[in-house]
Write a structure and sequence with these properties.
The chain is an all-beta fold and 165 residues long. It has one helix and eleven strands, in the order αβββββββββββ.
C-alpha cells in the first residue's frame, strides 16, 4: 500500500489465478463502510443501483464443491451462487441499508448480490447470470465457508416466474 501511496498511480488492480486485489488512493463515503471497518481498506460506494461499478469483485464460485453441511438442495433449473471464499456475508453496504437483492429480485449478469468480508477486506460478489433471485441462502452477518451456497438464481425468469424471451 505504501508503494501505491508513493506512486503517481491512483489505483492498483492485481490478479493472480483466482486472487484479485484492488487498491485505490481515493477514500470512500461513509455509506460504503461496513460495521467496525476501522482503518480497513476503502471500498467504493455500492449504493448506485444494484451494480457496484468499479468495486473490487470476486466471481461467485458457481462450480465450487458443496463444503457446507447445511447447503440447500438445488432445485432443477436453478443456479447456485456459491461463496468463493471464507468470510462474513453482508447483504447490504451498511447496517440498516437496503439489501442489494431480495428473494424475487431481478438481476443482470454482473449485478452486486452481496459483500464478503475477510480480515477487513471487502469483496463484492456478483451475479454470473441474469434471472430472478429464487432464494437467499445465507444470513446477514453470518460466517460463510468456501463453496457454501449464498443464493439460488432462476436464469431467464422474471419476477413473476415467466420465462424471459
Amino acid at each position: 500500500m505504501k508503494m501505491l501511496e508513493n506512486s503517481s498511480f491512483n489505483e492498483l488492480h492485481l490478479e493472480m489465478g483466482g486472487f484479485r486485489l484492488f487498491l485505490s488512493k481515493k477514500g470512500c463515503s461513509s455509506a460504503a463502510r461496513l460495521p467496525d471497518q476501522g482503518a480497513g481498506v476503502p471500498v467504493r460506494s455500492v449504493m448506485q443501483g444494484t451494480n457496484a461499478g468499479n468495486a473490487p469483485q470476486a466471481p461467485a464460485a458457481a462450480a465450487a464443491p458443496d463444503s457446507a453441511e447445511n447447503d440447500p438442495a438445488i432445485p432443477e433449473g436453478q443456479i447456485p451462487i456459491k461463496s468463493p471464499m471464507l468470510g462474513v456475508f453482508y447483504r447490504a453496504s451498511e447496517p440498516g441499508a437496503r439489501p442489494f437483492v431480495e428473494e424475487g429480485s431481478l438481476v443482470d449478469k454482473g449485478d452486486t448480490l452481496c459483500i464478503i468480508e475477510v480480515m477487513k477486506l471487502y469483496s463484492t460478489i456478483t451475479a454470473e447470470v441474469s434471472g430472478r433471485i429464487a432464494k437467499v441462502c445465507a444470513q446477514d452477518g453470518q460466517m460463510v465457508e468456501y463453496g457454501q451456497t449464498l443464493f439460488l438464481i432462476e436464469p431467464g425468469v422474471d419476477a413473476d416466474g415467466a420465462q424471459l424471451s
